[in-house]
Design goal:
Layout (H helix, E strand, L loop, with lengths): L1 H14 L2 H10 L13 H6 L3 H25 L4 H16 L12 H12 L2 H16 L3 H19 L3 H17 L1 H4 L7 H9 L3
Helix pairs in contact: 1-4, 1-5, 2-4, 4-5, 4-6, 5-6, 5-9, 6-7, 7-8, 8-9
Length: 202
């Protein structure tokens, strides 16, 4: 029963649409009117309010960290129940009941899950992979999957744990769905990289 309550709490935390609430509170804007139309930190930045985008990013990461950390570190839950708890903040973000079960891509929540489970060992690798990919590719979807891909060897190297591998697989399945529009398009190089390739053509 404890793990079920934790899973419900994790889903509720993940479903809190800070980007929509705070954008309306401070600027009477809706981030879903910008960028790709999803509620989240990325489109909050697109509104031109950088400080608000940073705040939403922090909150979206934190709303995944807190329930996962509490269940994993404080309650010491393990096994399949813990893996299900860990995916719940992402599900809440992607299918928020506050937004008629529509939500964002859950990339920030995915990072929060890894911080809650491993501190910065696996999550640091995920951030590095995402930043490297964003340096070269314009598609945010492919960048997110690159971060998740780099998290996998970090799991085996630093935290060999079957629970974490199951969480990784669940995240892969969910992100493949939330990022499906980006993933249907081939990775697009950044303009500076295209110019570099063009300058080296014979």
């Amino acid at each position: 029963m404890t793990w079920i309550l934790c899973a419900l709490a994790a889903f509720l935390c993940g479903s809190l649409p800070f980007s929509v609430w705070l954008s309306r509170l401070f600027y009477r804007l809706d981030p879903r009117d910008y960028g790709d139309g999803n509620p989240g930190a990325f489109n909050t930045f697109h509104t031109g309010k950088a400080w608000l985008g940073l705040l939403v990013l922090f909150l979206d990461i934190s709303k995944a960290i807190l329930p996962v950390w509490y269940a994993y570190r404080y309650l010491v839950l393990r096994g399949v129940p813990m893996a299900l708890i860990a995916i719940m903040p992402m599900l809440g973000h992607a299918f928020s009941p506050f937004l008629r079960f529509r939500g964002g891509k859950a990339l920030a929540a995915a990072l929060g899950v890894w911080i809650g489970l491993t501190g910065w060992t696996v999550s640091g690798a995920a951030v590095l992979g995402t930043l490297l990919a964003k340096t070269f590719f314009a598609n945010s979807g492919w960048s997110g999957l690159a971060g998740l891909a780099l998290a996998l060897p970090a799991i085996f190297i630093f935290r060999a744990d079957r629970i974490l591998l199951l969480v990784w697989l669940l995240q892969l399945a969910l992100l493949a769905w939330t990022l499906r529009k980006d993933l249907t398009r081939a990775p697009q190089f950044r303009p500076w990289l295209k110019r570099l390739f063009a300058s080296h053509k014979p």
